[in-house]
Amino acid sequence: MTRRSVLVVDDEVSIRKALTKGLEREGYFVTPVKSHEEAVAVSREKNVFDLVISDLILPDGNGLELIGILKKANPDLASIVITGNGTVESAIEATKQGVFHYVTKPFNINEVLVLVGKALHHEQLSQENKQLKQALHRKYNFDNFIGDSKPMAAVFEIIEKVASSDSTVLISGESGTGKELVARALHQYSNRADKLFVPVNCGAIPAGLLESELFGHMKGAFTGATANRMGRFQAADQGTLFLDEIGEMVPDLQVKLLRALQYQQIEPVGSVRPTEIDTRIIAATNVDLEQAVEDRRFREDLFYRLNVIPIVMPPLRERRGDIPLLVHHFLQIFNEEKKCDVVMRSEELMSSLMGYDWPGNVRELENLVQRMVILKNKGEIECKDLPAKFFGSSSKLPPGKSIHRNDMMNFDLPEDGVDFKALISSFEDHLLKQALQRTSGNKNKASELLRMNRTTLVEKLKKKQLSL
Questions:
Q1: What are the backbone dihedrals phi and psi of residue 343, each rounded to the nearest 5 degrees, phi first?
Q2: Which CATH architecture has domain 5-135?
């Protein structure tokens, strides 16, 4: 384990010696100095300190000013201030400057050693938190949104426009389209990015517990409430609260959520005093909330409060042109993650993927690629590696039999039938791509090959988002 380094700054010899002896006994590297000037000089020379313990009043300066100078060169430096004549004002100022603790003389050396351990641990957690936020920022930035289709371009444009505002956003779309990914991107590009993003799945928490989960509760509010508990609204104060599956919220809670949005106040369960909050709300739903309003399952006034900025996530079947990009992206991720070496080159296989309707959307595609990478481990994924549903059958094909486009005319209808529309669409995609390839993208020649009007060809390519 790496030994931590501590800079001790005090003009009293006895204190320097006591701290040095105690810290060294605990395994720390210690550098003792007696003045502001010496501390700055040794810090410039070494610049490796993890923590500084400084007297507040030094012969040639102020301990807080010294800590400020040292932190400019090393922002992760932990700090403790000791003083013989402490005041409330100086303690407050020390706290403002991020000093971990303020110790008055005379002090117990063992208590100071405990504080040193806590200060270093706190600084380590702070660094890990920064690294985590940076990792999340990389994960949820625009570079990780895969797709160059028009529907996705429209989503990107809205995110860029509204991320920096505090407006409430309602993201709608089918399951698996990436609604939480959009919510996290909105948070990461907002002015609240350095605060918490708190997700809540309103459909996964029982209605009886959701109120306490959102608004918190007071001790004794109900059986089992043995202490005050902070809710998700307070946890996300000055940050972002993501309410997923908002359409599943029961009517009674809808009323309380509406009030929180209207007045920026919440009332914990069992409390009669409102609590002020500063929380941005992003909600998501996979149900049609407008229809839910008509059916009186969702409050109209709450719908309009949430639907200030609507973002509609397109299903994968409406952005088929993004499928090759997504497949390549997931192949890279899972090859690296699973230590595999799998490739996908087959045009026929890609046609099958693009012809499928993807009811589970991007999540289903991600799961399929992950499964094929794990099972294949090495080599090229082929059509025979795809599940039977990609060829129109809702059940498994006979052992050893797979359906290829060249065998289409000899295809035997399974006993339990096929998805006719998906099968024909897949074959049509294959023919259109093949015609474009043979004519090097010349749409006039491609339409002649297919005995098709050029306008019809162009419309089909546009609708299917196909290109060479």
A1: -125, 160
A2: 3-Layer(aba) Sandwich (3.40)
Task: Kindly list the domain boundaries of the chain, sorted by start residue.
Answer: 5-135, 163-313, 318-464
Q: At what angle do helices 347-355 and 420-438 cross, to 10 degrees?
A: 140
User: Is there a common fold for 5-135 and 163-313?
Assistant: yes
The yes/no answer on whether domain 163-313 falls in CATH 3.40.50.300 is yes
Distance of CA 289 to the CA centre of its chain: 25
pLDDT in single tens digits along all 468 residues of the chain? 567 899 999 999 999 999 999 999 999 999 999 999 999 999 888 767 899 999 988 999 888 889 888 988 888 888 998 887 756 566 666 666 778 888 888 888 998 999 998 888 887 777 765 665 555 444 444 556 787 788 888 898 899 899 989 999 999 999 999 999 999 999 988 999 989 999 999 999 998 899 999 999 888 888 888 888 889 999 999 999 999 999 999 999 999 999 999 999 999 998 888 889 999 999 999 999 999 999 999 999 999 999 999 999 999 999 988 898 899 989 999 999 999 999 988 888 888 898 888 999 999 999 999 999 999 999 999 888 888 788 653 333 333 334 444 445 545 566 666 667 777 777 788 888 888 888 888 888 888 888 888 888 888 888 887 776
Say how far apart CA 467 and CA 430 lie, in whole Å.
11
Amino acid occupying residue 249: M
Q: For residue 299, what is the enclosing H or E element? A: none
CB-based contact 401:394 (threshold 8 Å):
no
User: Rounded distance, CA 434 to CA 439, Å?
Assistant: 9
- Residue 80 CA: distances (Å) to CA of 101, 129, 158: 5, 21, 46
Strand duo 240-244 + 197-201: pairing: parallel
Task: State residue 437 phi and psi, 5-degree precision.
Answer: -65, -45
Question: Exposed/middle/buried for 74, CB within 10 Å: 0-12, 13-18, 19+?
Answer: middle
The rounded distance, in Å, linking the Cα atoms of 439 and 446 is 6
Q: Give the whole-angstrom CA distance, residue 385 versus residue 82.
A: 69
Q: Which amino acid is at 27?
A: G
- Helix 63-73 vs helix 88-96: angle between axes, to the nearest 10 degrees? 0
Buried/exposed 131-169: b ≥16 CB within 10 Å, e otherwise: eeeeeeeeebeeeebbbebebbeebeebbeebbeeeebb
The fold of 318-464 is Helicase, Ruva Protein; domain 3 (1.10.8)
Q: How many Cβ atoms sit within 10 Å of the Cβ of residue 173?
A: 19
Query: CA angle, 220 as apex, 216 and 222 as ends, to 5°?
Result: 75
Q: Are 317 and 177 in contact (CB under 8 A)?
A: no
